[in-house]
Amino acid sequence: MYNKTNIIKEKLFHFIALFSALCAIIFLSGIIISLFKEGYLIFKEVGVFHFLFGKSWYPSQDPSEFGILSLLIGSIVVTVLALIISIPLGISSAIYIAELAKPKEKEILKPFIELLASIPSVIYGLFGVVFLAPIMMKLFNLSIGLNAFTASIILGLMVVPIISSISEDAISSVPKSLREAAFALGANKWETIIRVVLPAAKSGIISSIILGFGRAIGETMVVLMVAGNAACIPKSIFNPVRPMTSAIAAEMGEAAVGSSHYNALFGIAIVLFVITFISNIITEQVRKRIRTK
Amino acid sequence: MNNRNLKQYIGITATRVITIISILFLITFLVFIFSKGWKVISFSFLFESPREGMTKGGIFPAIIGTLYLTMLSITFAFPIGVLCAVYLSEYAKPKWLINIIRMAINTLAGVPSIVFGLFGLAVFVGMFKFGVSVLSGALTLGVLILPIIINASEEAIKTVPNDFREAAYSLGATKRQTIMKVVLPTAMPSILTGAIISVGRAAGETAPILFTAATFYTRKLPQSLSDEVMALPYHIYALMTEGTHPDAQIPIAYGTAIVLLLLVLSINAVAIIVRYRIRRQRKW
Question: Does position A1 have pLDDT exceeding 60, yes or no?
Fold first, then answer.
């Protein structure tokens, strides 16, 4: 078997596999380098501090202003509200599916949730514009239905399946013996869930929330269509906002390649990348803690 | 009822109610989209080009565009993803490199899709001069789905028992032969499940193709890899935000949404069914 051509084939295969594995690093570096190459000029032009905390975003006026505070706040407001909606919904349904549902119900609910997680965000956006926005206008007597709150409801709905399915995995993987021990001590079902199962599944649930956060802050189409697209600091949650992702999506078409505006949009992408990178590292740490347990 | 049982009753009921509410929300969403859109769907809607400034006609070019983009992106990402997973699980050396690669994959998986779009714009459209084209869009989507394919493939390869490998080695097979003839064929159904899911993901993404591939309107179908294309998700967005006849455009957007939804849901339903089958059939 070990003749010369075989040895060459072995080496070649090993090399191709290694190269494919390196592709992950190559693409990630490609992303980082291209973002910084196009984006760093704006930091040089206006300064990092002014870029992050400058209050006015007038990219196409003369003189132009590139402060993304209003966009940053837009992203944060929408994401936090979305999580406030999706965390209780997601975790409750995870508890229900993992602990309370009958086997038949579970067999239907679990794939249903998985399917929902796969619906394209642009369809959620469409739903927000034509269905939810008019309802919100009537309900809260607003002049514009497209605002931060409407966007965060849709975004929250979108994140529910993610939080739910990952939390459900975490809850289901809590060993049965823990539950039996709790029952043996006289705890009832609810006490077992709250005091034993949830604490044991804590890390998994936390990482599902961080993942949901990453998904919500990086989501583009929903906020682009539903958040109302006003680049100013919101006074209430019923004001329209322009989160960072939608600023990039909405303005890149008009920004001339190489202009300050173009660089500024890449600068926003750098900020987004850094935020999701940090939230990734936190998830990793939480996951490592589960493994070492 | 004593205090503890009352608490249990309240707790369980609340959990059930909240779950039902979230499911109802999501069902409302699906029912709304379908009830609005099914009237629009017809043979001519599916197989004709748009006419009269997007107010009439069908969405055939967008369907074809989405098929081109997804097929091309999976052709690009599938071999790289599977081989990457092979390297991570079968060669797995040196350790420090594996750690870096894993970190890179996790980071890639969390990058917002619009950032992939900018990457595609800067690298494929700009640097490689592919222009706004099927090729640029498919490559961008390919990079986006790569982590999904890698993770699914690695999970699949991990479930192949070590006995299989040892049996192959004891018959004198080399490492490459063991991987190609034993490990990958055994893991292939699960790997394909992952690939199917990533196709669904690629089909539904809008942000990465905004500046790399998509165009609101072309009459002709893409002739080559360097043509711009219409695509279903972008078409929905464009119908809602561009053009001059919103009243005529919104019904078309509903119809397009149903087509995209059915496409993505059926792709994923296939993947879910295949996965349950594999779990049931697995004998080792």
Answer: no
Tell me the sheet residues that pair with A66: A57
CATH code matching the domain that covers B43-281, chosen among 1.10.3720.10, 1.10.630.10, 3.40.1710.10, 3.40.50.720: 1.10.3720.10
- Contact yes or no for A276 and B33 at CB 8 A: no
Instruction: Provide the CA B219 distance to its chain's centre, in angstroms.
Output: 26
A128 vs B242: CA distance, rounded Å = 17
Tell me which residue in B150, B200, B269 faces A24 most closely, judged by beta carbons. B150
Q: Which of B99, B28, B45 shows the shortest CA–CA distance to B235?
A: B45
Buried b (16+ CB within 10 A) or exposed e, B44-59: ebeeebbeeebbebbb
Interatomic CA distance for residues B54 and B210, integer angstroms: 18
Q: What is the pLDDT of residue B4?
A: 87
Residue A291 burial class via C-beta count within 10 angstroms: exposed 0-12, middle 13-18, buried 19 and up: exposed
Residues B193, B152 contacting (CB under 8 angstroms): yes
Q: What is the pLDDT of residue B276?
A: 80
How many angstroms separate the CA atoms of A147 and A142, rounded?
A: 10
Average pLDDT score over chain B: 90
Is the pLDDT assigned to residue B63 strictly greater than 90?
yes
Number of alpha carbons in the 13 Å side-chain half-sphere of residue B157 = 25
The whole-angstrom separation of Cα B281 and Cα A148 is 48
Query: 10 Å Cβ neighbour count for A192?
Result: 20
Distance CA B212, CA B225 (A): 12
B6 touches chain A (CB under 8 A): no
Which among B143, B241, B264 has CB closest to A27? B143
Helix (H) or strand (E) holding B279: helix B246-281
Q: Which residues of B touch A265 (CB under 8 A)?
A: 118
Chain B residues lying within 8 Å of A30, measured CB to CB: 119, 123
Contacts of B82 (CB under 8 A, 6+ apart): A20, B149, B153, B184, B191
Residues with Cβ within 8 Å of B155's Cβ and at least 6 positions away in sequence, in order, are B190, B194
Rounded mean pLDDT, B274-284:
75
Residues of chain A positioned with their CB less than 8 A from the CB of B147: 24
Identify the residue whose tokens are 């870096």: B100
* Cβ–Cβ below 8 Å for A35 and B86: no
Interface predicted TM-score (ipTM) of this complex, two decimals:
0.91
Domains and CATH numbers, chain A: 65-292 (1.10.3720.10)
Gap from B269 CA to chain A (nearest CA, Å): 7
- Tell me how far apart the alpha carbons of residues A114 and A92 are, in angstroms, rounded to a whole number: 16
Q: Pick the residue from chain B with its C-alpha nearest to A164.
A: B19
